[in-house]
Amino acid sequence: MVRVRIAPSPTGIPHIGNTRTALFNFLFAKHNKGKFVLRIEDTDQKRIVKGAKEAIVEILEWLGMDVDEMHIQSERLDEYKKYAKVLVESDLAFEEEGAIWMKMPKGKIFSWQDKIGNKKISFKSDVLEDFVILKSDGFPTYHLANVVDDHLMNISHIIRGDEWISSTPKHILLYESFGWKLPLFAHLPVILGPDKTKLSKRHGAKSVLDYRSEGYLKEALINFMALLGWGPSANKELMDISEMISLFDLSDVNSASPIFDIKKLDWMNGEYIRRTQNSKLKTQIWEYLGKKYPIQIIEKTIPLARDRIKKLSDYLPLCEFFFKEPNKYEIDLSQKKDMLRHVLNTLKGLRNWKGVVLGEKMQKLASSLKIRNSEFFMMLRVAITGKKISPPLNESMEILGKEKVLERIKNAMPL
RNA sequence: GGCCCCAUCGUCUAGUGGUCUAGGACGUCACCUUCUCAAGGUGAAGAUCAGGGGUUCGAGUCCCCUUGGGGCUACCA
User: Fold this and answer.
1) Which of residues 231-290 of A touch strand B (CB under 7 A)?
2) Which of A289, A321, A353 lies at the terminal end of a domain, its last residue?
3) Which of A17, A232, A298, A303 is surrounded by the fewest CB atoms within 10 Å?
4) Which residue's CA shows the smallest distance to C1' of B7?
5) Overall average pLDDT of the A26-41 stretch
6) Is A182 inside a domain boundary?
7) To which H or E segment does residue A109 belong?
């Protein structure tokens, strides 16, 4: 029975690095029809950040990584004390200054076969030192709590970040001292930032919640994280979660540290937006914007916007003119008064207010005014939207409606 | 400093001794399409597989060294 766990400490909001570790655990568990356990490692009281635990749970829920069990270490203090005592009684540990220390034996070699890269890693015990397993405040250190819990919770595979490699010999010592069976270890290479150093809050690594509020889709984020250090042999890129689950294999995980490149995430997010059904995208944008804009108008604009946005947050800058009048014009229209008047007069008499019809009319008008199409449309675009970049004008005018279009052209004409 | 891990286009990667004068994706550039911007289509540039030694008939793929990068070295996790 495969049982894996993620063991975050509630010292901050998880970023891409922690979350990818969770994802790999999740994929591995599901692929093997095993269990996915969440264990909050809140054994360092000083570093606990309020709300972090809730954020961890929220992120897992948002991404759809449902946990089968949840444990909290601070509720299990008796357990750790009990096992620390066992070690003291068998003379493998000792007490000093209120803390309990594990004795590091000499002349031993600790080694294991790591599932990432399928390589043997070994450490000489002589370079290691005695270490604290129970702190003087009564809380265990990571090493003790981790080993005790992983054993008690029947964890079969420990899939965690690379930064734990140097601690693994300590954990092996503990397992051996208790006479417990060793789990399998898989140490994931850490994700590096563009500066090639470890992704961390200190380096401004954004929390996963930040990505959500910037308008990234969970499907895109998951897909992107999965590809950081994992290359399915099929060489597939765009995959939904069920495909990832069926393809996932620890032996396909790279040993080298990947660098986080947001450009590819942006592209992927755009891909996912383009694959989202109109009706679903409409709701997502409406909710993303705090339900403040009329959903009927959003709905009409979706076909025009979907190919033009990479993130949900790109929608408003592109489509804001549908909801309110421009308050400035990106091009000076002061020399265009005559032309705008022509447009106004032509449009006034128009009965059939459809994009195609508008298109034909405008083309004709442009040629009769002897002005290049592109120039003509640009003038009109700025007059109506205020901007040099907008969705296609004819369709936008149709959505906006005759009344508003006429009004805007009028307002754009300098006195 | 010590110990450990790592090394294929700018980035994510495919590649597990011969089919690799190294494939795909993002990004970049050009062209097509076009009312702007996108999207889409076509194409291009971009990696002497970090460097040097081996092993082998043959190495990106195995071994060693060097270099570079990263991690750990707390009564943090």
Assistant:
1) 231, 233, 235, 237, 251-252, 254-259, 261, 263-264, 266-267, 270-271, 274
2) A321
3) A303
4) A256
5) 98
6) no
7) strand A109-114
